[in-house]
Write a structure and sequence with these properties.
CATH class of one domain: Mainly Beta
Order of helices and strands: EEEEHEEEEHEEEEHEEEEHEEEEHH
Helix content: 10-25%
Distance between the termini: 45 Å
Shape: elongated
Largest sheet: 2 strands, antiparallel
CATH architecture of one domain: Ribbon
Strand order of the largest sheet: 1-2
CATH superfamily of one domain: Cysteine Rich Protein
Oligomer: single chain
CATH topology of one domain: Cysteine Rich Protein
Number of strands: 20
Strand content: 15-25%
Number of helices: 6
């Protein structure tokens, strides 16, 4: 008769044991049905699944939820991806008239997402007009402030009072010249060495623009996903696994600290335990190889005599083979 087994530990279930069920053929021991990152039970049995692993709400948000380009908060649910950025559906709107673009399409115009009407108006206008004096810019570059274009000479630096140029910066609604902006205490990106005005990523002893903090191997930005540090560099999970990683036989996560190696497998220190009674073990614990699974001495002593004799015979054979090498 076919006996159902736990989707994690592959052991069977006791009669009348409480189990968790996540699919027609996916059953779990209650102690095995936990988050793949924090190993805590799921609140109200709510979990998120990604690449075959299950995560609690908080860990999934920290690891995989993208960040909205407008409001800077994590996106849970529907994500709008446009212009190499991510948005909440309600945050993706025309940068001139504010119309929601999610269901109507958009045009990329000079790095801005515009509705079709605003894009057509800009295309038909012979030249941009200053929002204050309504004069054209001729060969000048406009200063963009709160979504509008101005002649730079209409403004002065909030800090030093000098007349501004088109490359001034807006900080908390105040316009600053480049010199005052760079002295305003904003963190400097470790990649482009320019001030960071929006969300900051702190890692490797430096601070980064979100889009500039990327894997040292594939150069893809992490964008809120987990990274792994090695020799002063950051790597995505896939590249870290290929270059350096050992995987825990129990949780399948990359082992970042000490590794327990036994029976041709590797374990996190906290996950190395007897396969029969689940008693925690360490590097110094005495254990036996029972069908390629670690077995503590107490459980080994409870095995039938015939099984123990066979295991002793295999141990002697291995020692003899090692001595003859």
């Amino acid at each position: 008769m076919d006996i159902s087994k736990c989707a994690k530990c592959n052991d069977g279930f006791e009669p009348y044991e409480n189990i968790a069920k996540t699919g027609p053929d996916e059953l779990w021991h209650i102690d095995c049905f936990v988050c793949s990152r924090c190993f805590q039970p799921f609140k109200d049995n709510e979990y998120f699944e990604f690449e075959g692993r299950k995560y609690c709400h908080d860990d999934f948000k920290r690891l995989y939820a993208p960040c909205c380009s407008k409001c800077g908060t994590f996106i849970i649910g529907r994500v709008i991806r446009a212009m190499h950025r991510s948005w909440h559906p309600d945050c993706f709107e025309c940068q001139i008239c504010g119309q929601r673009l999610t269901d109507f399409g958009f045009i990329s115009n000079a790095g801005r997402a515009l509705c079709y009407g605003c894009d057509a108006n800009e295309y038909l206008t012979p030249s941009l007009k200053c929002h204050k004096c309504r004069q054209s810019f001729d060969d000048e570059s406009p200063l963009r402030y709160q979504g509008e274009c101005y002649h730079p000479y209409h403004f002065n630096c909030f800090s030093c009072g000098s007349e501004l140029s088109y490359d001034s910066r807006e900080v908390n609604g105040k316009l600053l010249c480049i010199r005052c902006h760079d002295k305003s205490g904003l963190p400097i990106c470790g990649a482009c060495h320019k001030p960071i005005e929006e969300r900051v990523v702190t890692a490797l002893g430096k601070q980064w623009h979100v889009e500039h903090f990327a894997c040292a191997q594939c150069e893809r930005p992490f964008l809120g996903k987990r990274h792994y540090e090695k020799r002063g560099l950051a790597y995505c999970e896939q590249d870290y696994k290929e270059l350096f990683g050992s995987h825990c036989h129990v949780c399948d996560a990359i082992i970042e600290g000490d590794v327990v190696s036994a029976l041709g497998k590797t374990w996190c220190v906290d996950h190395f335990s007897c396969s029969f009674c689940n008693t925690a073990m360490n590097h110094t614990s005495k254990f036996y190889d029972v069908e390629s699974r670690p077995c503590c001495k107490k459980c080994f002593d409870m095995l039938p005599s015939k099984s123990k004799k066979q295991i002793y015979k295999e141990i002697r054979a291995k020692k003899k083979a090692m001595a003859n090498k």
